[in-house]
Amino acid sequence: MFKRKNAQLSVVIAVVLIVIVLIIAAIAITFLITKPSLIGSPYEDDDSDFEEEYEDIEILCSQPYMRLGIGCCLDINYNKICDQDEVKKEDIDYCDYPLEKIGSKCCRDDNSNNRCDIDERDFDNDRDYDEDVDISGPFSIYDYDIDRDEITLGLRNKGDETIIIESIEIEDCEELDDETILDPNERESFDFDCDRDDRFDRDIRIEYRDDSNILKVARGNIERKYERDYDY
Question: Which DSSP letter does residue 103 get?
Fold first, then answer.
């Protein structure tokens, strides 16, 4: 009787152990199915797992930074390229005609004085005369030459609007009334026939229009004074 009870107990214990093993196996299989990344080498697909982990995270980059992957990088010129990846602009080695290499840029140098015409601000002074000039409005006089019966006047539009010159008057000279358009920073030279005399001080009057299309007047004066006498 005692031996039969022991046999029955052994069967019960065996059944319980089998059930426990089956439950553990079922739990393990379920875990592996829901976590496939645990199957195989733990070092595989590290990058993809990292990206999947952050793909739903909203990344905000404040200007001048732009988004790069899961971070931000500097884009100071807003060209959608990280500054650290941009190729540094090389220095200019040559310039196509009629431009010439002056310093680090290409520009015109029509008078071959190794200065960009657009940047040149010097007057064409000579040692024989002391020149002085003054003019109002958007104009500057970048060059002029006074002879006894002829004056050459160079005007530049120093403003930021396109102007239309309707007439230019120089005292005791023939009036120029041909319409001339000057864009910002553009220059133009004008020749005047004048009364023959020894005066080197003349008033200038310019009628012009800007973007407002209102007729305006600029006034100025050009002057040359003798430093010593000369024979003519």
Answer: T
